[in-house]
Amino acid sequence: xxxxxxxxxxxxxxxxxxxxxxxxxxxxxxxxxxxxxxxxxxxxxxxxxxxxxxxxxxxxxxxxxxxxxxxxxxxxxxxxxxxxxxxxxxxxxxxxxxxxxxxxxxxxxxxxxxxxxxxxxxxxxxxxxxxxxxxxxxxxxxxxxxxxxxxxxxxxxxxxxxxxxxxxxxxxxxxxxxxxxxxxxxxxxxxxxxxxxxxxxxxxxxxxxxxxxxxxxxxxxxxxxxxxxxxxxxxxxxxxxxxxxxxxxxxxxxxxxxxxxxxxxxxxxxxxxxxxxxxxxxxxxxxxxxxxxxxxxxxxxxxxxxxxxxxxxxxxxxxxxxxxxxxxxxxxxxxxxxxxxxxxxxxxxxxxxxxxxxxxxxxxxxxxxxxxxxxxxxxxxxxxxxxxxxxxxxxxxxxxxxxxxxxxxxxxxxxxxxxxxxxxxxxxxxxxxxxxxxxxxxxxxxxxxxxxxxxxxxxxxxxxxxxxxxxxxxxxxxxxxxxxxxxxxxxxxxxxxxxxxxxxxxxxxxxxxxxxxxxxxxxxxxxxxxxxxxxxxxxxxxxxxxxxxxxxxxxxxxxxxxxxxxxxxxxxxxxxxxxxxxxxxxxxxxxxxxxxxxxxxxxxxxxxxxxxxxxxxxxxxxxxxxxxxxxxxxxxxxxxxxxxxxxxxxxxxxxxxxxxxxxxxxxxxxxxxxxxxxxxxxxxxxxxxxx
Amino acid sequence: xxxxxxxxxxxxxxxxxxxxxxxxxxxxxxxxxxxxxxxxxxxxxxxxxxxxxxxxxxxxxxxxxxxxxxxxxxxxxxxxxxxxxxxxxxxxxxxxxxxxxxxxxxxxxxxxxxxxxxxxxxxxxxxxxxxxxxxxxxxxxxxxxxxxxxxxxxxxxxxxxxxxxxxxxxxxxxxxxxxxxxxxxxxxxxxxxxxxxxxxxxxxxxxxxxxxxxxxxxxxxxxxxxxxxxxxxxxxxxxxxxxxxxxxxxxxxxxxxxxxxxxxxxxxxxxxxxxxxxxxxxxxxxxxxxxxxxxxxxxxxxxxxxxxxxxxxxxxxxxxxxxxxxxxxxxxxxxxxxxxxxxxxxxxxxxxxxxxxxxxxxxxxxxxxxxxxxxxxxxxxxxxxxxxxxxxxxxxxxxxxxxxxxxxxxxxxxxxxxxxxxxxxxxxxxxxxxxxxxxxxxxxxxxxxxxxxxxxxxxxxxxxxxxxxxxxxxxxxxxxxxxxxxxxxxxxxxxxxxxxxxxxxxxxxxxxxxxxxxxxxxxxxxxxxxxxxxxxxxxxxxxxxxxxxxx
Lengths: 691, 551
Known about the structure:
The structure holds two protein chains of two kinds.
Chain A: E1 5-12, E2 16-24, E3 30-38, H1 44-54, E4 64-69, H2 71-77, E5 84-89, H3 95-98, E6 123-126, E7 129-130, E8 136-138, H4 145-155, E9 159-163, H5 172-184, E10 189-192, H6 193-196, H7 202-232, E11 240-242, E12 248-249, H8 251-256, H9 264-279, E13 285-290, E14 295-301, E15 304-305, E16 307-308, E17 311-313, E18 322-324, E19 328-329, E20 332-334, E21 340-344, E22 350-356, H10 375-381, H11 399-413, H12 417-439, E23 451-455, H13 459-470, E24 474-477, H14 484-490, E25 494-505, H15 510-531, E26 539-549, E27 556-560, H16 569-584, E28 592-603, E29 624-631, E30 637-644, E31 653-655, E32 658-661, E33 666-669, E34 674-677, E35 683-686
Parallel strand pairs in A: 1-4, 4-11, 5-6, 5-9, 9-10, 13-23, 23-24, 30-32
Antiparallel strand pairs in A: 1-2, 2-3, 7-8, 11-12, 13-14, 14-15, 14-20, 16-19, 17-18, 21-22, 24-35, 25-28, 26-27, 26-28, 29-30, 31-34, 32-33, 34-35
Chain B: H1 6-30, H2 34-37, E1 42-48, E2 53-56, H3 61-64, H4 67-77, E3 88-91, E4 104-113, E5 116-126, E6 155-159, E7 162-163, H5 165-173, H6 178-206, H7 208-232, E8 236-243, E9 249-256, E10 261-264, H8 280-294, E11 309-312, H9 330-345, E12 363-369, E13 376-381, E14 384-385, E15 399-400, H10 412-419, E16 422-429, E17 443-449, E18 455-460, E19 481-485, E20 491-494, E21 496-502, E22 507-511, H11 526-534, H12 540-547
Parallel strand pairs in B: 10-11
Antiparallel strand pairs in B: 1-2, 1-5, 3-4, 3-6, 4-5, 6-7, 8-9, 9-10, 12-13, 12-18, 14-15, 16-17, 17-22, 18-21, 19-20, 19-22
Helix pairs in contact in B: 1-6, 1-7, 5-6, 6-7, 8-9
C-alpha cells in the first residue's frame, strides 16, 4: 500500500513527555495525533516509548523523528552535572571566578556573586601564548599536564574543560592539549572552547566550556539511552535533536557538544512561528509564547529568526548569572505566565509575577490548596476562561477559592474583586507589552509591519489586547497552539551557526580577506555535514558580517549577498550604515570595520509540508456553542459569542466580542475584532479600523 | 475606567523604568569609548519638568543622583521660552550642573506634549578626552579646573532638532580623541531622543494630566518606602573620625531620627590645591547612595526616596570646593565620603552593611600608540577588588566598588586587540589580610605588558596605606596599589602617579585590596580553612597562625 508518511516530535519536559505526530496520507490529507505521558527520570527513554505507545505510533513506521529535551538546562539549574577540572593559559585560571565584576543589584551591599562551577583547586594552568592575531607568541608547554591530570583523577574529576587565551583566533594549542589529554586519559569527557565557539571574551568562553563539560556526560548518557531504546523498538533512524538555534542536529553531533541544546524548548516554538509566517504570507512576525510561569517573545524578520551568542542563565536584576556563548535564538523572557502570582507590596502597589504557583498548588481555582491569586484566576473570574470548561473540562474550577484569593488582593488595594481581577490582567498585559517592545521598537522595528503570532497555553488569551496596544498588522493564533513547539521541530532544517571573530578594516584587500573567512567556514561546514552522510550539494548558506564603526564595540549584523570582493565593499558599507541608522537613529562618517562573521549552514532533511484544506462557507454558526458575559478589562463587560474551536472550519468568519474554546487554549476576541479561519485552521484576528 | 486608577499609574511608572532602560541600552550599543560600552561608566535618567528624578537606567549608582541636578541647573539658567521641542543641552561643569568632572558629559532633552514641557530625558557618560593638560584630561598635577579640559557651562548643542555645528566643532577641537568624542556625543543624543519618544507616547496615550500624576505618585511612593525603612533603623547620633592615606583626618556625624537622616560633614579639612576636591552636589550623592542601601535597595530610586536625607557641608572644604578648583579625581574623595558614612554606621546596622571593601575606584589610565594599527589608544578603567565579609558569609572576590554597579571589566582578549599590549596575568590576589570567622573576598592582580615605545601611566588609588576595616574582631584587608616593573629591572610602587613614562616590556601590575574580615579568625570553621588551603588562598603557616588550624 502507498505509504503514509509519519513524522513524530517528542518533547521531554520536567513533568510530561509530549508527542505530536503528523501523518500525511497518500491522498494528500493530513492528520495530527497528540499524546502526553509522564516523564520518567532517570530512564527518560521509557517516557518516550510510553508516549509513542499511547499515541498508537509504531516506531518502525516513523520516517522522521525530532526530539526536544530540557535535560541540559535542568542539569545546569539543578546543579546535577559532574565534577569538572579546568585547564587555562598560565596566569588566567581565576578568570572563571573573577568573571566580569558586575554588581547588578547595586544598592544591595549584601549582593552575592555567583560561585564558579569549578573551585580554584581544580583550575590548572599551562604556559604558552598566542596573540589576538592568531600567531604564536610562546610555545605551548605540556610538561606539567600529566601532573594536572593525576591531580584531577585523585579529586574525582569526571570531565575536563580547556580554554586558552585567543583560541578563537588559533586553535592549535587547544588541539594539542586535547590530544594529549586523550592520550593520557583515554575515555575521559573533555571539551575545548574552540569546539563550541570561535568568538572572543575569555570569561564567557571559559564559562561556556566549563558548563558544557559539566553537562556532557549527563547528556551523552541520556541521548545514548534514548537512541538505544528507540532503536530496540524498531525506529529506523536516530532522532534529530532540537537545538537552541532553531535547527535540529544529529544525535551524534549533539552528544559531542550538548550545551547547544540549552534553550531548545523556546527555539522550536519560535521556529514554528517563522515557518507559519512563511506559510501564510507573513514573513514579519512577533512571536509570543505564554506558558505557565513565563512569557517569551522573539522577532522574526523576512522569515529569519535572529540568532545571537549573548546568552546567560540565572541572570536577573539580582544576579550576574552565567554566560553560555552558543547560538541561541534572540528572545526576551519575563516571569509572567498563567500561573504567575499577583501580590500587593507594602505600599499598596499591585504586581504580577515573577513568582509562580507552578503545577502544585497551581492557581487557586485548581482547588489544590493554592491561596494566591494568579493570572489564570483573574481570567476565570472575568469570564474570559470558561469556568465550566476549565483545562478543557478536565478540572472543575474552584471559583470560591479564586474569589477568596482575588478578594484578598482587592482588599489590599481598596477595590472590588472585579477591579482586582481587571488590574491583574492589565498589569500582566503591560509586562508583556514591555517585553514585546524590547524585541521590536527598541531595535528600530515598527510593530505595524509585524503580525503577532501567539501560542503556548496562555498566548491566545492575551494576544488581541497586546496586538491592539502595539498596533500590529494582525494577530494569528496557530491551530493546536498549545503544542506549537512540536510543529516547529518538524519544520526545522539541519542547521549550524558558526561565529568566528576576526577583525578586518574595510579597506582595499578586505574583500578577499572576508571571502576567505567565509570560504573556510563553509568548507568546514560542508565537510562536517558530509561526514554525517549529508550531500554537500544540499547544504545552503547564509552569510552575515558583523560590522561596527571603528572603535565601537557592539556590532550590527548585515546579510551579505554572494561572494565578497573589494567591488562589493561599498554596497556592504551602505547596507551597514542603513541597518545602523534604523536601529540607532543616526549614522556616522567614520571608518567601518568587520569584527567577525556569522555563517548559517543548513540542509533540508525532508521536513513537513502543510496541506491546505478546502475553504468552506463563512458562516460560523455551526461552531457557536453559546453566549456569556465576559469582562474585557479596559473595554468593560460584553455579551460574547462562544465558539467551539474544534468545530471552526476553514473559511469561517465572525466578529468579536467572542471567545474560542478548545481543549488546550482559549482565544479572547475583543469587541471590534474580526476573525477568519484560514485553510490551515489558523485563527486570524483583525484588530479593528486598521485592518 | 478613569485615567487615575492605581493600575494606570502603575503601568505608566513601569513604562518610565522601561524607557530609562531603553535609553541605557541605546547608549551602550553605540558608544565609541570602551569606558562607556564595556565599563558602562554611564547613566540615563528621566526627570519631571522641574528636574526631579523619576527613574534611572541601570549602571552606576553614583550617577543616579547626578542627572536631576543637571536638569535643575538648566531649568534655572534658561527662561522657559528658550527651552523648545527638539532642543538638547550639554554640560560637564560641576558648578554648572555637571556634578562630577569635566570628562563626564551630560546631555539633557526636554520632552513636550501638546506644546507643554512634561519631562526631561538625560544621559551622562565618561568621555575619553575633553582636552586639558594631560591625555585623558585627568592629571594628578592639576591645580585648577581649566587644566582639566573644556568647560561646558550648560549650553544648547541641538536647537529644535538641528545640531549646532559650532558647539560640536568647539568640543571636538578641544579633544585629543575627536572621533571618539563625536561618536559618543551622537550616541548620547540617540539615547535622550529614544527616551523622549517613549515619554511623548505615554503622555499621548494616557493624557498629560495622568502622566504627570503618575510621576508625582511614583515619587510619593519612593518617599513612603524610604520613611518606612527609616523608622526601622536605630535612631541616634553616630560619629567617626578616620585617618586617610595622606594623614588627613575625615570626620562624620550621622543623626538618624524617625523623619530625618542627617549627615554632617562640616568638620573636615579645607579644600586642597590638587584635583581630589569634591563639590557639594557630589557629596550629596555619596550620602544618597548609603542612604538608599539602608532604606530599601529594592524600591525605586527617585526624588521621593531621598527626601528624608539632609547633608551639611562647609564651603571651601574638601567636600564642598569653591568654583574653579581642580576636581578631576573627585571620585577618590567621594568614595572616601561614602565609605566614611558606611563605616560609621556598620557596627550599628550589620544586617545591611558588611565590613570594609577595597573601596577605591582605582582609576587606571594607560595610553600610547597601538603598535599594530599605529592609532592612539587610551585605557580608562576602574578596577575590581575584594569586598568585606558579613555574619554568615565570606566577602565577594573581585567585584566593582560601591561606586560602580552594573559595570564590566575589560576582557584580556579584547584589551590586547584594542590596546596593543599584553595582559600577562589576571588573577585573585592571595595576599594575607581580611581573615575572620568569615573572610573578606579576594582582590585582583592584573598585569599589563607595554608594547609601545612611548606610553604613559596615570593612576589614583586610595585605601592604600589605611586598609579596609574589619568588623567584630576580623582582620583588616590588604591595600590597593600599582607596581611598575621597568624593562630595565627597576621597580616602584604607587598609589597616585601622573603621566609616568612607559616603554616596551614595562609591566604595570595593578593590585587591589582583599576585603576585610568579620568575626574572630580563630572561630573560622576548620573545614573552610582546609578548603582555603587547598584552593591556594592561604598558606598552611598563615592558616595556623591566624586561624589556629593545624594541617
